[in-house]
Amino acid sequence: MQKLTLKGLKINISTNDGIFGQCLLFQKGLNVIRAENTSGKTTIISSIIYALGVEAVLSAKQGNTVLKSVLKEKIEFENKTYNVLESYVLLEIENEKKEIITIKRQIIGTQNSNLISVYFGSLITNENNQFKKEDFFLNQDGAAQRDKGFHKFLEKFMDIKLPFVPKYNDDKQIPLYIQTLIPLMFIEQVRGWSGIQATIPKIYGIEAVSNLTFEYLLNLDVMQNRLNRKEIKKELDKNKIEWNKINDYMESIAKEHNCYLENFPSITVELKKEDYPNFIFDIESKKVTSYQFLSFLREKLEECNLNTTLKIDSKELQNKIDLLNKEIIILNGKLRENTIELMNEKNNLKKYEVQISELWKSIKKYKDIRTIVKLGSDEKISFAKHKCPTCKSILEDSLQKENFEPMDLETNIKFLESQVDAIDILIKSSNHRISKLNQLENEIKQIIKEKRDLLSSFTKDANYSSVISEGTIREKISLENEIRKLEYLNEILESSIENLILITSLYKENKEKLEGLPQNDFSEKDIEKINKFSEQFLELLKLYGYSSIAKIYEIQITKNNYQPFLDGFDLTLESSASDNIRIIWAYSVALLYMTHWYKINHFGFLIFDEPEQQRMKDTSSEQLYKTLSSVKISNMQSIIATSEDEKLLLQKIKNIKCNVLELSNKAIVPKNRWLYNNI
Question: Which site among 259, 395, 547, 624 is 20 to 30 Å from 593 CA-CA?
Answer without folding.
Answer: 547
